[in-house]
Amino acid sequence: xxxxxxxxxxxxxxxxxxxxxxxxxxxxxxxxxxxxxxxxxxxxxxxxxxxxxxxxxxxxxxxxxxxxxxxxxxxxxxxxxxx
Amino acid sequence: xxxxxxxxxxxxxxxxxxxxxxxxxxxxxxxxxxxxxxxxxxxxxxxxxxxxxxxxxxxxxxxxxxxxxxxxxxxxxxxxxxxxxxxxxxxxxxxxxxxxxxxxxxxxxxxxxxxxxxxxxxxxxxxxxxxxxxxxxxxxxxxxxxxxxxxxxxxxxxxxxxxxxxxxxxxxxxxxxxxxxxxxxxxxxxxxxxxxxxxxxxxxxxxxxxxxxxxxxxxxxxxxxxxxxxxxxxxxxxxxxxxxxxxxxxxxxxxxxxxxxxxxxxxxxxxxxxxxxxxxxxxxxxxxxxxxxxxxxxxxxxxxxxxxxxxxxxxxxxxxxxxxx
Lengths: 83, 325
Known about the structure:
- The structure holds two protein chains of two kinds.
- By secondary structure, chain A is an all-alpha fold.
- Chain A contains four helices and no strands.
- In chain A, α1 packs antiparallel against α2 and α1 (5-17) packs across α4.
- Chain A is globular and about 35 Å long.
- The termini of chain A are close together.
- By secondary structure, chain B is α/β, with parallel strands linked by helices.
- Chain B has a single domain (12-101, 164-310), classed as HUPs (Rossmann fold), CATH 3.40.50.620.
- Chain B has helices at residues 12-29, 43-56, 73-86, 96-102, 104-113, 160-188, 198-203, 224-234, 238-242, 256-261, 265-276, 281-288, 292-308; strands at 35-38, 61-65, 89-92, 124-128, 143-147, 153-157, 191-192.
- In chain B, the strands form two sheets. A four-stranded parallel sheet of chain B has the order 3-2-1-7, sandwiched between helices.
- The longest helix of chain B has 29 residues, at 160-188.
- The radius of gyration of chain B is 21 Å and the shape is globular.
- At the A-B interface, α2 and α3 of A face α6 and α13 of B.
């Protein structure tokens, strides 16, 4: 299990979706959808990343905002899958 | 602001007068002698053709019918029938060979083979979003639906590279049509009349420099349900009115709702109106018999799609000159 899930996720999101952003462009609770950070292609990229990095399978039914739509939600979701 | 179930009901006579006047004024302002309309066999272009006839007269409207090997045969048939009813000139140009020359099908198939190596050209495909947003929350993520030679269907969640490859290749269909429309427009000194409606414009359901590549957009202020009202008023043929709207660019039938909008137009349009006009949540829920959660879910989807497509609604950004430079 990778250490510091949140740090890994934040680095991936910054690098993939906001490579030229100013410092700290989103907070841990901010909605990725509402902030325009992740679009329909980005969701697929994020799913691929978390499945490969954390060696988990995310079912279609789990691709919902409650699980994925902020750094905190995403971290909790992955940690619950790994538990 | 007033909000009820009839808020999108049009005064059709007044709308026809207003839109016809717009088309006439724009044609005059651009110093053109008529209009070219791409007739897809769908309701938007059928309505536009009728409005152009109303505005300019039937002898100044050219309908272009641009089928390819994966578009529905009905599209061509209905477009021809409607053009015949309007008594306008048409040109039919089969664009399969130009798409093949560009590599549209080959590029699309190569992208699909990245996730499905056994895929071949006998398979049929479409891409869809999760259905029924109001009943079940889900992110917008595309799945590929594949039907093999035996008619067996399979659904696969796409990867970013595959989706981008499929979309980039498929969008060349609309862009190829744009090339043809401008060829005939310039040859005849006509303008290219766009067919995008407000439900599509607000959420970016058009291809930049494809069906979005036009000179004027006379129905971009009308929601899709208003397009239907006006189409009835203008006598668009029944086959087109009763047909489910579709992008018609995939080999498997796919309608606009499953491909992009995720809810029926009657609901979508009222919610888009409420979103745009900042109607109070309680009023929306009361009129539409939806929960606050459902309305918020729809609004979040509108925000995401609007944000993702905002570049397509704008001219390319430019720097302002500084100190005269």
